[in-house]
Amino acid sequence: MEESPLPAQIGARLRRLRTASGRSLASVAQQLGISSSALSQIETGTMRPSVNRLVELVAVLGAPVSAIFDDLDLFAPDLDHAAGDVAEPVPGVLVTQPGEAAPAQLDQGVVYRRLSPAPLPGVDFFESIYPPGSASSADGAMLVHDGLESGYVRSGELTFEFTEGAVRLGAGGSLSFAASRPHRVVNQTAEVASAIWLTILPACGV
């Protein structure tokens, strides 16, 4: 992991998710295979996790990735979600205007941005932006987690590595796979690439 700042509010949300789950810093760090000091630095915003580490961390805490972007509850039609950058112009209809959604800046300059105004139960819907030469993990490690994933390359070109081989997709290309299949995302080009993701998750509460 790179020692560059994570937005403090995201680190604070990760800490709140951990404390709400009743887990100690040491127990979560042990399950992730990292030091308590490293996890503490993520929670205080002094270290940026990789994509892999972030997904692993929220999974251990029983939360979707979408829970880190703000303090909104999971969307439900009968709740008032209007707060911060989220408006509710019609009861039960949430709106976020272009440029208002706060992103998460991760290791290697990778950016994650939730595309739904509020977290959706059982679903992660987000955009990922990969600078030239970046990847979901710097050390080549592949990610394994629960759920089903579908990705759509919005711009540039991304390589999706699996144990059995790799798939390279340009703008307009898409793929779907079980997230339990080891995978890694890499931008091997000299151009910025972005993708839109829909992840169907097992039932989880935040």
From TrEMBL:
Where is each HTH cro/C1-type domain found?
A: 14-68
The superkingdom listed in its UniProt entry is: Bacteria
State one Pfam family annotation.
HTH_31
Cite the CDD domains for this sequence.
Answer: cupin_XRE_C, HTH_XRE
Q: Does the UniProt entry include the keyword Secreted?
A: no
What the entry lists under InterPro entries is as follows: Cro/C1-type_HTH, Cupin_2, Lambda_DNA-bd_dom_sf, RmlC-like_jellyroll, RmlC_Cupin_sf, TransReg_Diox_bact_type
- Gene3D superfamilies per UniProt: Jelly Rolls, lambda repressor-like DNA-binding domains
Recorded hits in SUPFAM superfamilies, A to Z, give: lambda repressor-like DNA-binding domains, RmlC-like cupins
> What GO molecular-function term can you cite, just one?
DNA-binding transcription factor activity
| Keyword Protein biosynthesis among record annotations | no
Q: Any one cellular component term from GO for this entry?
A: cytosol
Which UniProt keywords are present, listed alphabetically?
A: DNA-binding
UniProt-recorded name of the protein:
Cupin domain-containing protein
Organism listed in the record: Microbacterium saccharophilum
Species lineage, top-down? Bacteria, Bacillati, Actinomycetota, Actinomycetes, Micrococcales
